[in-house]
Design brief:
- By secondary structure, the chain is of the alpha/beta class.
- It has two domains: about 5-55; about 60-319, 2-enoyl-CoA Hydratase, Chain A, domain 1 (Alpha-Beta Complex).
- The protein has 14 helices and eight strands.
- It has helices at about 10-25, 35-55, 55-65, 70-80, 120-125, 135-150, 165-170, 175-185, 200-210, 225-235, 240-250, 250-260, 275-295, 300-319, and strands spanning about 80-85, 100-105, 110-115, 155-160, 190-200, 215, 220-225, 265.
- Strands 1, 2, 3, 4, 5, 6, 7 and 8 form an eight-stranded mixed β-sheet that branches.
- Strand 2 and strand 3 form a beta hairpin.
- Helix 6 packs parallel to helix 8.
Length: about 325
């Protein structure tokens, strides 16, 4: 069953009518409704193009959170061979909101790390909706250390509303774990590639995405706070999330202008959720290209260039 967003309701009506016609035809073989159904299909396709032609920042937030978008596990299963998950932070527990391990991208050995939201009620609860606890970030640190030791590029797939703000997470040092993970991103002497595949929320995303190259899917978002959270703080009204989304400049297009995003991965009409295989293959191609750009750099040069990239971003913010 297709999950429709609020602004896609007119599309749902048209596609629903086309499916109703075809269902009637299946029940009565004498009915010939294909011509009418195809006309509705054409109308739906045109409307889909119009809806996605100029999405507002808030609508991009909705698309980025779409429950049918490919998740981290989908990308790992489709793109990487010989994926071997590595569990636990060697301190407290294994955080199921963070996936990570050794894998191969083509003939290249890599370490892949990512947020996993789950795909149904059971797995979303198990994965804590992609909101990592301190042990998730400490697992990521352990994997980045491993990658540095063996000279393996690191690929991170970011899709989180933010780090988990629960009492237990705070007791176990959530902010310290995020800071240490961000610090580790700046210290490893191997190529670090990050792709924002859905939501890049707050420090929970920065801890994985302080990378040499940051790519964003066309309808993904990356921000210091959610629009709802921003609206609640600034206007004391979460319903002003549309205005907050505009002000935060959280879209891939805005962030590319600011220098935060290095590449935008175009999504097919209707978003990644309607063309899962196509977008996964596009992301795989972009990851390989970005790793190749850094493949001949020495470890010290990689670290220096990465640090300078983020120092320059800070200078832009002050200018």
């Amino acid at each position: 069953m297709t999950n429709y967003l609020d602004f896609e309701k007119p599309l749902a009506d048209i596609e629903g009518k086309a499916e109703e016609l075809r269902a009637l035809a299946r029940q009565n073989e004498e009915m010939d409704v294909e011509k009418e159904a195809q006309a509705l299909d054409k109308k739906a396709q045109d409307l889909l193009g119009d809806l996605y032609k100029n999405l507002t920042p808030w609508r991009k937030c909705q698309v980025a959170r779409h429950p049918d978008r490919p998740n981290c596990k989908d990308y790992i299963d489709a793109l990487f061979d010989e994926y071997t998950p590595l569990a636990g932070d060697r301190n407290f527990a294994d955080d199921h909101a963070v996936m990570g391990g050794l894998a191969r991208l083509g003939d290249r050995a890599i370490v892949v790390i990512g947020h996993e939201k789950g795909h149904d009620t059971k797995t979303r609860i198990e994965r804590n909706f992609g909101m990592a606890r301190p042990e998730g970030y400490r697992k990521a640190i352990r994997l980045m250390d491993l990658a540095h030791r063996f000279g393996l590029p690191v690929v991170t797939l970011v899709d989180t509303p933010g780090a988990y703000p629960g009492k237990g997470a705070e007791e176990r040092g959530q902010s310290e774990a995020i800071a240490r993970s961000t610090q580790k991103c700046l210290e490893i002497g191997v190529p670090l590639i990050s792709v924002i595949i859905g939501e890049g929320g707050s420090g929970g995303a920065v801890a994985f995405a302080t990378a040499d190259r940051v790519a964003m899917l066309e309808h993904s978002i990356y921000s210091v706070i959610s629009p709802e959270g921003c609206a609640s703080i600034l206007w004391k009204d979460a319903e002003k999330m549309r205005e907050a989304a505009e002000a935060l400049r959280l879209t891939a297009q805005d962030l590319q202008k600011l220098g935060v995003c290095d590449r935008i991965v175009p999504e097919p009409v209707g978003g990644a959720q309607r063309h899962r295989t196509e977008i996964i293959q596009s992301v795989g191609k972009v990851i390989a290209e970005m790793i190749d750009e850094l493949a001949d750099m020495e470890p010290d040069a990689i670290i220096k260039a990465r640090r300078q990239k983020y120092l320059d971003l800070g200078k832009k913010g002050l200018s």
